[in-house]
Design brief:
five-stranded mixed beta sheet, 22-stranded antiparallel barrel
Length: about 650
């Protein structure tokens, strides 16, 4: 695998050896103007082209729009495995994250600077993050535990939604509303200055959708398999700026409900959050304090399918709470950016399951505490960019289940990371290596459930995952063209996944070892009023060692073998966008007996100004009708033809 990388790197080095040294980051150069910057990779704002890690950023010009939730627009980001089992219509347990093919739960999510997965179960509730409110999305595709801790084995996805920080000297308002063959959704963004030091911002979103979600083998006589959802969410923010001090306050609340297509097959979720960020600057140094607290409640209702479809089987109640604080010290100089981080987080949760006769069948609860210390230095010297990072984590877990007993576990992890980039002319060559880990979620330790005829069992004896990842890459940027090729490998010991232990019975277990060898290619180019992008990813993700010989060589669940996309957007006074995607073979179980097939997708849209401050757009998402967001008993949304009105700024015009 790395022989091919060596060839590309040697060729790039030969081509660029005589070129001028580019100016140090973050000073802009003309060739980097269209490339963009991210902070998720190292914690400091850096050009994508000059990073020693592979990363990508959201480009709104490449998104056709038409869907209400954030997960659909994130398909334009390379590296994130949102293609299987991640539909917002999926039940609790399937809205999980994989990055770079590393596997389920091996990607960390942050939304507005706060951990975006609930601490009890690791879920990402995409339906409560409206696509139109997302102002920025960045992804690190590589080892991130040295900076972000548990779960960042394969990388980190960071989203920022509209807030007070986006408000200037004048009030702003933006309403985006649409109707489609699946339903309707609306998102309102609004903000205003409040005196000399304050800015206020708010967004609110609502969505109502329905479609045939259950595949034929999960339907039953008398039930049409149509899933319906109701989603409502809002976030209010305030920013205070006074001298060297900046305060950012946030409050949010949301709920979503899903009726899955059979009587007594339902799901409700609600939650609230408060968060704070305080930044005090001292010249080139700064102190940053972050804090958040949130609570959520989940109700999961299951019927007795396939034995008695529509008859109540059980009701699960899953309340949890989550709170965390972090303190960063940063110091920047001409050749070094130092970051020191202290972090703590506490999670508690409970799960109870009652039968149709209101008899307690199972219950479990627990608490976890994470304490961490991290230090990282970015050294810039001429052509070289060096990142050295180290993080230590201590995790205390107490969990107990009604039938299984009690476990108390203390686990520690040391996660190092080193990366080197060599800049020469239009080329950047990079190599990186890092360790990582993931502690089991309380949900995995204490909660069992059933989907259809299959029982999914918890396991109090789970061990934390340990990982080692590394890669090499070459990044070429010249004028409006950027080409990035990266090869990386991620190995995980004591990998957490469901194992088939009997017919229709799976148990959350530790797998001996898994390995993902991945290759990715990103090409983007602007030409006049046109913008093009090409993305390709290949992921050989499989089990390499286990006591069960039948598992060796099996592909990791919900990781597509290949992904490819081609996008084109032309923006003049009007805007037209086309995106074609291919999603390779994916499996939903450890024995690879449940193939999810392949899928080809087509998105198209056309937008025109409809007034002084409005835009009318029409389009189709997934025009091929592929069921690309799937699980054994779910089909993702079919084709969706939509009409939208946006009362806000027009797309920036371009003179042909």
């Amino acid at each position: 695998m790395y022989g091919l990388a060596a060839f590309f790197i040697a060729a790039a080095g030969a081509r660029a050896s005589a070129a001028d040294v580019p100016s140090p980051s973050p000073s802009p150069t003309p060739s980097l103007a269209p490339i963009g910057k991210v902070t998720v990779a190292t914690g400091s704002s850096r050009s994508l082209h000059q990073l020693p890690f592979p990363a990508a950023a959201f480009n709104p010009e490449l998104v056709s729009g038409g869907d209400g939730a954030a997960d659909d627009l994130l398909r334009t980001l390379p590296g994130i495995d949102l293609n299987r089992g991640a539909s917002t219509f999926a039940p609790y347990g399937l809205t999980r994250i994989s990055i770079g093919g590393a596997g389920t739960d091996r990607g960390a999510l942050f939304v507005d600077g706060v951990p975006g997965q609930d601490g009890f179960g690791g879920q990402a509730d995409w339906s409560l993050i409206p696509a139109h409110a997302v102002e920025d999305a960045q992804i690190l595709i590589g080892p991130g535990s040295a900076l972000y801790g548990s779960g960042a084995i394969g990388g980190v996805l960071s989203l920022r939604t509209f807030g007070a920080a986006d408000v200037g000297a004048q009030p702003v308002a933006d309403l985006d509303s649409g109707i489609s063959s699946l339903g309707s959704d609306s998102t309102l963004l609004a903000g205003t200055p409040a005196g000399d030091h304050w800015r206020l911002g708010v967004w609110g979103a609502t969505s109502r959708t329905s479609f045939v979600s259950l595949p034929p083998n999960s339907r039953a006589p008398g039930f049409n398999g149509v899933a319906t959802t109701v989603t409502d969410a809002m976030r209010a923010t305030a920013r205070y700026t006074g001298g060297p001090l900046t305060l950012d306050l946030g409050l949010e609340n949301g709920s979503d409900a899903q009726q899955e297509g059979r009587t007594n097959y339902d799901f409700w979720r609600s939650g609230s959050q408060a968060d704070l960020r305080a930044t005090e600057s001292f010249g080139n140094d700064a102190v940053i304090f972050r804090s958040f607290v949130r609570e959520s409640t989940i109700v999961n209702v299951a019927d007795s399918f396939p034995k008695d479809p529509g008859a109540l089987s059980y009701v699960q109640l899953v309340p949890d709470s989550d709170a965390g604080q972090s303190l960063d010290f940063t110091s920047a100089s001409a050749h070094s950016d130092l970051l020191v981080r202290f972090e703590t987080r506490g999670v508690t949760g409970y799960n109870s399951q009652a039968s149709a006769k209101d008899v307690l069948e199972s219950s479990g609860d627990g608490r976890q505490r994470y304490d961490a210390f991290a230090v990282q230095d970015e050294v810039n010297s001429g052509r070289f960019r060096l990142v050295l990072g180290l993080r230590g984590d201590d995790i205390d877990t107490h969990a107990e289940a009604l039938k299984e007993g009690t476990v108390d576990q203390t686990a520690g992890a040391i996660s190092p990371r080193v990366a080197l980039a060599y800049l020469s002319g239009d080329f950047t060559l990079r190599a990186y290596e890092g360790g990582g880990f993931r502690a089991p979620f309380l949900n995995e330790l204490v909660r069992s459930y059933r989907i259809g005829a299959t029982e999914y069992l918890s396991n109090l004896n789970l061990l934390p995952e340990r990982s080692s990842a590394g890669g090499v890459g070459v990044d070429y940027a010249h004028g409006p063209l950027r080409v990035a090729l990266d090869l990386q490998s991620t190995g995980v010991s004591d990998a957490l996944d469901f194992k088939t232990i009997a017919t229709n019975v799976e148990m959350r277990s530790n797998v001996g070892k898994t390995r993902t060898d991945a290759a990715s290619l990103i090409v983007s180019r602007s030409a006049g009023c046109n913008r093009y992008d090409v993305q390709y990813g290949d992921r050989d993700a499989r089990v390499t060692a286990d006591d069960d010989q039948a598992l060796i060589g099996k592909r990791l669940t919900y990781v597509p073998a290949q992904t490819a996309s081609l996008g084109w957007t032309r923006t003049t006074q009007t805007q037209v966008s086309v995106r074609v995607e291919y999603l390779g073979k994916t499996y939903a179980d450890d024995l690879n007996a449940e193939p999810l097939g392949t899928a080809g997708l087509l998105d198209v849209s056309y937008a025109v100004p409809a007034g002084r401050e409005s835009t009318l757009s029409i389009g189709a998402s997934n025009a091929t009708g592929a069921h690309y967001l799937t699980s054994p008993d779910r089909q993702g949304p079919p084709s969706n033809v939509w009409l939208r009105l946006n009362l806000g700024p027009h797309p920036k015009p371009c003179a042909p």
